[in-house]
Amino acid sequence: MGILSAKLSAVKPSQTKAMTALATSLKEQGKSIITLSQGEPDFATPENISRAAVAAIHAGHTKYTAVAGIPALREAVVKKFQRENNLTFTADQITVGCGAKQLLFNALMASLDEGDEVVFPTPCWVSYPEIVKLAGGTPVAVETRARDGFIMQPADLRAAITPRTKWLMLNSPSNPTGAVYSRKNLEELAAVLREFPDVWVLADDIYEHLVYGDVKFCTMAEVAPDLANRTVTVNGVSKSYAMTGWRVGYAGGPLEIIKAMNTVQGQSTSHTCSISQYAAVEALNGDQSFIGKFRRAFEQRRNIVVKMLNEIPGLECNTPDGAFYVFVGCEALLGMTTPKGQKLATDMDFAMYLMEEAGVAVVPGSGFMADGFIRISYASSEDDLKNACAAIGDAVSKLTRA
Ligand code: PMP
Ligand code: GLU
Fold it and tell me: Whose CA is nearest to atom 2 of ligand 2?
């Protein structure tokens, strides 16, 4: 009998973390690598937010807090949901955890019995199927297509729902495709959900503020208020406020599930760091003007990267509406041979080739349940992005077809 549980043996480590760890270790060995494998803004956390954290330390806010988060933060989240999403919650309908990732985990741990199903569109974030499995559930992937802009089609959702379906997990803007669900897209999915009153919605809005051009963000509970009593809306400060390391996410939803999520958290991490919670209060209540600044910078970077990548023969990508990823088709390069004589059979082989030959860390599409792609995060400096795209172009030009 081995030490690992059957449940854990089925769970894969995060590919985004694995590729980034490999890049870091190669860098430590002296190799020059541009890391585009982790979705993390390169900006520093805004100064007012950092100052609030320092003040919290000096004020002695260094003790355990309430499991659901300090009252000031829950109030700030109530205001944020009202102001930006037209969602009305009371403070006890809000819970705060160690990043949006933990809120998703808490929601699924609190609700899934063995064999319960969670439906989500693919390509999806690496952690979705694995968190579902950790919580004892069964992931049900619904494939979306590039020609539909990677938007889940209502008929495909309907076909995926069974009597065991507990949740639809929906991430917009999407990691890894950058797809943004419009009001109409959400209305169409809501119409399907009305046919299945026992299916809940887990809305992952972590990239809310990162939408470009005249694209508008909306979320399910806002578009379909009649579904709010079975929707949990998850968000956080990581991406919008350049606060990935602070580990603050939050969720709003019906009292019953929020209470159960607090029980999961109270018996695991207790709560996120007290100091980070004070920083998050300042993030949500303080000056918001840098969000627009971040957004403009990301939009410009997106345009550069999409243009440069589409000029490389064998690679193709659409212009994503949101988040900070491009999901690049590399199918045409599979089967080609590297200068060292290796045949590229999979997107993983291609990603490893880019790491070695171009010195660029990306994540293979297979990590997102979509073979034949690589994901590039453009949350890096313009110089790094231009150098990385040029190096990818050089590496691709060295491939030959036998
Ligand atoms: N959802 C998606 C789709 C993500 O890409 C991320 C990024 N890690 C998260 C949730 C979690 O973010 P965090 O835990 O840093 O709030
Ligand atoms: N969400 C980011 C990504 O996909 C951060 C890493 C992670 O948590 O997976 O790269």
Answer: 39
